[in-house]
Every structure is written in structure tokens, then in C-alpha cells.
Amino acid sequence: MYRVIFIREYEDEGESYNAKESEYAASIAAAAYAIYSLEETRAEFERRMVESFREDPSSKRTSFRDQETPLEIPDFRGLSRRSSSRVGNNDVGGGPISRSSTKPIEIISGPRPSVSVTIMGNNQADVWERARLAKINKWYEKMNGKIIEWENDKKKSAHLDMEKRKAEIERLKRINLSHYQNKINRIEDITKGAKKQLEEKKKSEEIYAKQKARKIRTTGRVPVKCFCFEY
């Protein structure tokens, strides 16, 4: 990644710098720029790491060494010497300090990431994969437990319903059997009563018939009245 920094020099009326002060200022600027370049390189590296994790690791095997442009730290010693000589000439000549034009300087910053970055990325991917699989297994066990619990509850409820229906059927069966037995007993009682009355009627008719027969034998006359039986 290329960075372009514009160095501007402004005229400060009533104040001048000597060569030593100019060199000190250039050194401070170089140190500040080195820190800035390091921070920019670190931010760019983290961004690339995040983007690489979002992609399919099997389809992208290239390392950061192939993706990034070699980065170098510029040498500011020449810049400080030019600035010092320019300030010195202005002091010697005694003329006014002219404002210099803005000059873009092309900078290549940041260290080159090593192969260990790819290994670190793979390790992080493995850690993430194991954590994700553990989470999936935990979710699976939880849902499977709920399914088994639901199955057991439904089976238990169905068994209780079956037992209730079975008990109800047994109760109705006992009631039906009781009704049947009561009917049979009543029929038998009626039959016994009818048979008893029939026997009594038979005996009564037999006694009456024997009495009439004795009377006929005594008188020799047959009574006009006939005995009719309903069959």
C-alpha cells in the first residue's frame, strides 16, 4: 500500500531556523511518520485477516507474501540535509524566505508479514471450528433430549388414556353383566311362579273331576255342564 505525504514549508515572518534546528525537526517528522506507517500497516493487516476468515479457506491458499506489495521505510536523512542546506542558504543570503511548492513524496510503509501469519490464521480457524462444532453438538443434545422427553410424555399419556378406557370398558361390562343377570333372575322367578300356579290349577281340577265322578257313580246321571280347558 502506498501512502503519499505532502510536506509543506510555510514562511514564518520574524523567525528563522538554523541548520541544527532544521535537522532536529526533520528527525521528529521522520519518527512520527514511522509510527503512523506502523499503525496503518497493523490496521491493514487486521482487515486482511478478517476478510480471509470470511472466505473459504480451501479455495484460497495464497499467503500474505503474494498479496501485498513490499513495504519499505523511507530515508529522511537526505530530506533533513536538503532542509538544512536550504535554511542555511536563506540565512547567509539574508533574503526573504520563499515559500516552497508542495511536493508529493511517494512512501512505501509497513513491514512484510511472515509465513507465521498464515499458520496463526489456520490455528484460529481450527479453534473457531472446534468451538462451533462443540456448540452444534450441545444444541443437538439439547434438542434431542427435548424430542425424547416429548415422546415419553406422549406415550405415557396414551397409556393412561388406554388404561382409563379399559377401566371404563370393564365397568360397563360389569354393569351390562349385572343387568343381564337381573333379567335372567326375573325371568326365572316368573317361570317358577307360573309353573307353581299351573300345578295348583291342575291339582284343583283333578280334585273337582274326582268328586264329579263319584257323584255320577252314585246318582247315575251325567252332569250337563262340560269341563272345558284352555290349552
Automatic annotation (TrEMBL):
Region (Disordered), start-end ranges: 75-109
InterPro entries, sorted: Remorin_C
Highest taxon of the lineage: Eukaryota
Residue ranges annotated for the Remorin C-terminal domain, each copy included: 123-225
Family per similarity comment: Belongs to the remorin family.
Protein name: Remorin C-terminal domain-containing protein
Organism of provenance: Saponaria officinalis
